[in-house]
């Protein structure tokens, strides 16, 4: 006769549902929405510590509209299920003289209240599909070495650390790559 022993195995974790996220080419109004949602010290910790002036976002959204028209991709405005602006995600040519010159960079920046819900990963996966469809064969993601949240997104996307750079501000930046 055998005796039954109680099971000590923990139940399998319930998978977190992928959030619904919509991406659109940024509008002129999105410059002000981006300024508002990025106006948080934690959001801007790795981007100078505070939101840029609205004029910077006006130029950035205009440049993204040009990228979309010319390249078929850009940093898109990210919207949640109710149509609220959460930030941006997308791709653009690496815009600096230092770093991975000539590469197509993917990136994301979200409102603080949107963190930890899967939006960045879901939107970045959509970005990868769109840039692949536009004929891009490889992307990079430049991430501050201390930015553990963004590094986690690169891992979920299957990206691998390729290089480390010292930024003009003296910080360490990791360059992750992914062949598409």
Automatic annotation (TrEMBL):
<dbReference type="InterPro" id="IPR051531">
    <property type="entry name" value="N-acetyltransferase"/>
</dbReference>
<feature type="compositionally biased region" description="Low complexity">
    <location>
        <begin position="1"/>
        <end position="11"/>
    </location>
</feature>
<feature type="domain" description="N-acetyltransferase">
    <location>
        <begin position="21"/>
        <end position="180"/>
    </location>
</feature>
<protein>
    <submittedName>
        <fullName>GNAT family N-acetyltransferase</fullName>
    </submittedName>
</protein>
<dbReference type="Pfam" id="PF13302">
    <property type="entry name" value="Acetyltransf_3"/>
</dbReference>
<dbReference type="InterPro" id="IPR000182">
    <property type="entry name" value="GNAT_dom"/>
</dbReference>
<dbReference type="InterPro" id="IPR016181">
    <property type="entry name" value="Acyl_CoA_acyltransferase"/>
</dbReference>
<feature type="region of interest" description="Disordered">
    <location>
        <begin position="1"/>
        <end position="22"/>
    </location>
</feature>
């Amino acid at each position: 006769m055998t005796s039954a022993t109680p099971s000590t195995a923990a139940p399998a974790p319930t998978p977190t549902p992928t959030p619904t996220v919509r991406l659109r080419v940024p509008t002129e109004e999105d410059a002000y929405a981006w300024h508002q949602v990025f106006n948080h010290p934690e959001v801007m910790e790795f981007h100078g510590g505070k939101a840029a002036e609205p004029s910077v976002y006006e130029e950035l959204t205009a440049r993204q509209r040009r990228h979309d028209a010319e390249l078929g991709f850009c940093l898109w405005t990210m919207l949640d299920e109710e149509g609220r602006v959460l930030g941006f995600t997308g791709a653009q040519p690496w815009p600096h003289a230092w770093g991975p010159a000539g590469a197509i960079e993917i990136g994301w920046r979200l409102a603080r209240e949107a963190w930890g819900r899967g939006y960045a990963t879901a939107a970045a996966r959509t970005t990868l599909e769109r840039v692949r469809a536009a004929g891009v064969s490889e992307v990079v993601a430049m991430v501050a070495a201390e930015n553990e949240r963004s590094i986690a997104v690169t891992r979920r996307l299957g990206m691998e650390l390729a290089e480390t750079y010292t930024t003009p501000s003296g910080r360490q930046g990791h360059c992750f790559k992914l062949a598409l």
